[in-house]
Known about the structure:
The complex is a heterodimer of chains A (448) and B (288).
Chain A: H1 2-27, H2 35-38, H3 43-52, E1 54-59, H4 65-75, E2 79-84, H5 90-102, E3 109-113, H6 117-122, H7 143-148, E4 150-151, E5 154-155, E6 158-159, E7 165-170, H8 171-176, H9 185-198, E8 205-206, H10 211-221, E9 226-229, E10 232-235, H11 240-254, E11 258-259, H12 266-274, E12 279-283, H13 286-293, E13 301-305, E14 322-326, H14 333-344, H15 347-354, H16 362-366, H17 368-371, H18 383-391, H19 404-409, H20 411-414, H21 416-419, H22 425-442, E15 446-447
Parallel strand pairs in A: 1-2, 1-3, 8-11, 10-15
Antiparallel strand pairs in A: 3-14, 4-5, 6-14, 7-12, 7-13, 9-10
Helix pairs in contact in A: 3-14, 4-15, 10-11, 14-15
Chain B: H1 2-33, E1 36-39, E2 43-46, H2 50-56, H3 59-91, H4 98-110, H5 113-124, H6 130-138, H7 151-176, H8 180-188, H9 193-204, H10 206-221, H11 225-231, H12 244-254, H13 258-287
Helix pairs in contact in B: 1-13, 3-7, 3-10, 4-7, 5-7, 5-11, 10-13, 12-13
Amino acid sequence: MRMRMTRRRALLGAAMSITLLAAGCGSSDDSTDEAPAATTVSDADVEAALQAGGNLTVWAWEPTLTKVVAQFQTKYPKVKVNLVNAGSGNDQYTALQNAVKAGTGVPDLAQIEYFALPQFSLSKAVTDLSAYGAKALDGTFSPGPWTSVHSGEKIYGLPMDSGPMALFYNKEVFDKYKIAVPTTWEEYATAAEKLHTANPKSYITSDSGDAGFTTSMIWQAGGRPYKVEGTDVTVNFDDEGTKKWTGLWQGLVDKKLLAPTPGWSDAWYKGLGDGTIASLVIGAWMPPNLESGVKAASGKWRVAPMPQWAAGEKVTAENGGSSLAVTEASQAKTLAYGFLKYATVGDGAQIRTDEGAFPATTAQLTADAFKNKEFPYLGGQKANEVLSEAATQVATGWSYLPFQVYANSVFNDSVGKAYTGGSTLQDGLKAWQEASTKYGQEQGFTIK
Amino acid sequence: MTRRTWIGWQFVAPFLAVFALVFLAPIVYSVYLSLYRTRLIGGTSFVGAENYTKALHDPQFWSAVGRVSLFMVVQVPIMLLLALLIALAIDSGRLYGAAFFRISIFLPYAVPAVVATLMWGFIYGDRFGLVGNINDYFGVHLPDPLAPDLVLASIGNIVTWEFVGYNMLILYSALRVVDTSLYEAAAIDGAGQWRIIRAIKLPALRGPLLITTMFSIIGSFQMFTEPVVLKTIAPNAILTYFAPNYYAWQLSFGGQQYNYSATVAVVMGLITMLVAYLVQARAVRKAG
């Protein structure tokens, strides 16, 4: 049975490549890479594929997709969508990379965080969507996420949600110790000291070294450590923006003003609940996580704009957020694109927003119903007013490494030492830079 | 002549087929992988022994080997000595409730390593764990068991807790098969308990002690579960090259360096074989 399956697939593959070859010969002398772009798929083709039906497998851990899939199948009864949770983040990337390498069991669509997308587009695991008319969606999404799914002229996924950063804080704790909500990082550092002095068990926030947080903070401070042009890569943490951040944060680390609790651990959730971790600078997707993970603090948390480097500035960065991408190995790309559009810009965008996801689409972000939504968990605050404004203030020009997944996985080997007293953040980042460039060289990138 | 040879092969064939498939094939495949290199840019190419040269000069790999070697030199003797003492105590027949004692010391071995490590992780927590509670209650400040310089000792404690009962049981069962007439003879000769232990029990335990030592050495070199589980609560103390197996795992799943990962695995396998062989050779020479 297994044998026969493999055989049939091999035959199919052979047939496919012959077709591709024929198409390539017919049109021009373009390399096979360019062949799909030549045959543009129109919206009508996509609609036809949706009506004709078929099977799709989607790998995603985003909980609101469940409802999207249900509604989608009601609208297009001939399409059967199999939504699989293959793990969150890195676990899923590992599974996906293994499937791609093995050549079997690859899903049609996969959730991929923005920082990881360059790695998958470079290894041609995901397909360029410009051939399916994705370029026409320009202006549909807020600029931050829309830039994140681009690699040059090519578009490798559609934004599913976004994570413009904001300051989430425990109002009860802030009020108790008479701490004003900080608007600048200087005020934030003062508040950190004031809080910890007043109650040695309380910390302004927790940090024990988190690659995603660190890069987002450098992003806001104006640092642009990664420069990527094709396979030419530059890594440099010796710039002004990075130093601005390490200068501030090193002070907090040295004075032991940060709870040494790793994010997303049990101790972390507990600290968020009992007031010992009093604030978080994190992506706008946080409210549902607080609601489900930190029930003890219901009604106590609020959202404020991210602290600034100079009073009066309005600059934020992205933290987290995912795209949904069509895999290169998918046998039903047109159909997959149909689902992708439904989930990210069609009815799915509204369904997911209603379910609590933070949208990446301007239509949802600017809708009155969205902005005026009151969050009972956040004491009835209209939090989206703050968060959607943050979405418009994301600093431009940031890019991640084409091997960011790996770089993040070894972050604590080097920068972690700064948190245990063995090094400084700036030296740690230098060591991380060296580890990243070494890996880049080994993988054949040109490091400049 | 030839016919007789073929019949022999036919009898051995089923075993050989399974042996080749499940033992030899993975090793051969690892060696095969280790001779190539796959890059994100440039694809796969044959590189011969290049990966091996790299491994021999890889400070991260050798720091991992050093860490498990230190672990082996300190933890294995402590654990085996404890197991030996307990086995002798239970076997002495002077212990009240020996059966209960035996089963409760063996029990941790039945706890899966992941669960055991999670449990100890909670105990070690200096903010919300048992260590934290002790600090709060007595107003003391115990050193953090998950700090970078203590985490190896903390893992040693977990591993000892897990395996002391298992080793004790092997030693104890060896003591049970000692011919009781030896003890009678010793009693007639007027030998005391210490004398009996030294002259009868310890010599009887020579073989089992060698076996438990070998298992423990191999176990130390294969350290994996404990650091992986503790990484989530001690991200800065557990490095991605904490132990050789952890390093191989990180290389292959964190960095897609399957070829180099296979190399590290092969080199580590050779080192383990060498150490195990040396220990055995030494023990055999002593016995001779």
